[in-house]
Specification:
The complex is a heterodimer. Chain A has helices at about 10-15, 30-40, 80-85, and strands at about 1-5, 20, 60-65, 65-70, 90-95. Chain A is of the alpha+beta class. Chain A has one domain (about 1-95): Roll (Ubiquitin-like (UB roll)), CATH 3.10.20.30. Chain A has a five-stranded mixed beta sheet with strand order 2-1-5-3-4, with helices on one face. In chain B, a hairpin with a 7-residue loop joins strand 6 and strand 7 (about 75). Chain B is mainly β. In chain B, strands 3-2-1-30 form a four-stranded antiparallel beta sheet, with no helix packed on it. Chain B has one domain (about 5-370): 7 Propeller (Methylamine Dehydrogenase, Chain H). Chain B has strands spanning about 5-10, 15-20, 25-30, 35-45, 50-55, 60-65, 75, 90, 95-100, 105-110, 120-125, 125-130, 140, 160-165, 175-180, 180-185, 195, 215-225, 225-235, 240, 250, 265, 275, 295, 305, 325, 335, 345, 355, 365-370. The chains are: A alpha+beta, B mainly beta. The interface of A and B includes residues 9, 13 and 45 of A.
Chain lengths: ~100, ~375
């Protein structure tokens, strides 16, 4: 079971109150986790990654285990603690004022 | 009793303002989609309870929302706006070719007859249509492909397709406008297009002031009973066409400034037109700090200031291109929103004004629905 924490605006969009729990059958990577997330919540398609290229949106980051995984290849295996469900995979909106 | 629903898009959400036909007591619902930019909200003429909203964010991109109960509840529908084929390039600010990139939906125009069909004007400028209630979107690529597309350049606000007018007398005829490319017309349902900018002059802005494309059209409006007559607020100049855009003439007349963004036409008087003069292209506030709507009852040229109930000192807000609308009650109601967050209403065609709300976020768009 993979735990995913979404930013507040995407939780509202997906109509979830808390972190999301996903079953990911392939090796957990950013790509497979986000594929599973978008399968469960189609409304999130296009909000984290481009619809077609699957490229991460510029002001979205992926964190886990106190590391920024945003620039890792999307098919890199996620840390064991994420794969085991001990730690969440965080989708983060960049800071901005105003 | 009939009623009015005013749909307001702001930089931090959407608001639905409702009143009965007297338009004295207003209920304010919202914010819907709080924290997101809502460029436009518009109801279907074919089913007034169906409302479309363009919700976007620099972080999370574009979402299209649809309500089927008059704005009480909303459902996100399709949000994939893929340019047809190889997108190609337009000109960037420095004149170099720049790939077409989708940024957001500026304008949603529901079909006049089919609640399932809605048109979307987007940045970078293109026209899309959904015929399945917003699930899927397809570009009408004849617009970008008609020939001048590679030469379009963005205005300061982006290369946005912001105006879509459907001709109620001819379902094949569509007018659109792009900043800063100009106005275009299709006579075959959007398959093919031609520029309709003859008579527009952009001195000091374009190297060739009467160029076929490149004009910064801010807004076009028409009266449903006379769709051949178009009124345009250009970057500078208020313009009029009586031949469906084939030619234009200036009708700025005695306006204190002919710069502005919003323009609209009275619901029952096709020669009565409203604009909100703005001081200049860099000073985006009313001349003399006086918020004045100007009304022409002669189709342009002669204008009268409408000031009753509007601030006449120290007012430095703007009224953006989408932020004015009329209802079809009698007398005609006129509405506009400001960058200061006020939404003003007049229930007597502009003679007197009062705020419905004063402290919303910066208002991007205002539309009015007249309810049975």
């Amino acid at each position: 079971m993979i735990r995913v924490v979404l930013p507040a605006h995407l939780r509202d969009l997906a109509r979830v109150d808390d972190e999301v729990h996903l079953d990911v059958h392939d090796t957990p990577t950013a790509q497979t986790v986000l594929d599973a997330l978008e399968e469960r919540y189609p409304v999130l398609r296009g909000t984290i990654r481009d619809h077609v290229t699957k490229q991460r949106r510029a002001f979205v980051r992926y964190f886990a285990c106190e590391r920024d995984l945003s620039h890792d290849p999307p098919d890199n295996p996620l840390p064991d603690q994420v794969a085991s469900g001990a730690e969440p995979f965080l989708v983060v909106g960049a800071m901005a004022g105003g | 009793m009939s009623g009015v629903r005013v749909l307001v898009g702001t930089v931090k959400g959407a608001f639905v303002l409702t009143a009965d036909g007297k338009r004295e007591q207003w209920e304010v619902q919202g914010p819907h989609f709080g924290g997101w930019e809502v460029y436009h909200v518009k109801g279907s003429p074919a089913d007034p309870d169906r409302i479309w909203a363009s919700q976007s964010s620099g972080w999370f991109g574009q979402v299209i929302q649809r309500s089927d109960d008059g704005g009480r509840s909303w459902e996100a529908v399709g949000n994939e706006f893929a340019y047809d084929g190889v997108p190609g390039t337009h000109q960037w600010y420095d004149g170099t070719p720049h790939p077409w990139e989708f940024a957001r939906v500026w304008h949603l125009e529901p079909s006049l007859t089919d609640p399932e069909t809605v048109w979307a004007g987007v940045e970078d400028a293109a026209l899309f249509r959904s015929t399945d209630g917003g699930k899927g979107w397809a570009e009408l690529a004849g617009l970008r492909g008609h020939g001048s597309g590679p030469h379009w350049q963005p205005g300061a606000g982006g290369l946005c397709l912001h105006t879509i007018l459907l001709d109620p007398a001819d379902p094949e005829r569509i007018f659109i406008a792009i900043s800063a490319a100009g106005a275009f017309r299709s006579d075959d349902g959007g398959a093919t297009w031609k520029p309709i900018n003859r008579g527009l002059r952009s001195e000091g802005i374009l190297p060739e002031p009467e160029a076929e494309v490149g004009h910064c059209v801010h807004r076009i409006a028409l009266h449903p009973s006379r769709p051949e007559t178009l009124f345009m607020q250009k970057h500078w100049d208020v313009m009029r066409s009586d031949d469906a855009g084939d030619s234009w003439r200036e009708v700025s007349g005695d306006l204190p400034s002919d710069f502005g963004f919003a323009i609209d036409v009275h619901a029952h008087e096709p020669e009565t037109v409203y604009v909100v003069p703005i001081l200049s292209d860099s000073e985006h506030y009313p001349p003399e700090g006086k918020l004045r709507v100007y009304r022409s009852r002669t189709g342009g040229d002669e204008w009268e200031p409408l000031t009753a109930g509007l601030p006449q000192s120290d007012c430095y807000v703007n009224v953006l291109r989408e932020a004015m609308a009329v209802d079809s009650l009698d007398p005609c109601g006129v509405y506009f929103g400001t960058t200061g967050g006020q939404v003003y209403a007049s229930t007597d065609a502009g003679d007197r004004w009062a705020p419905i709300v004063r402290d919303l976020p910066r208002v991007l768009s205002v539309e009015a629905q007249t309810l049975p």
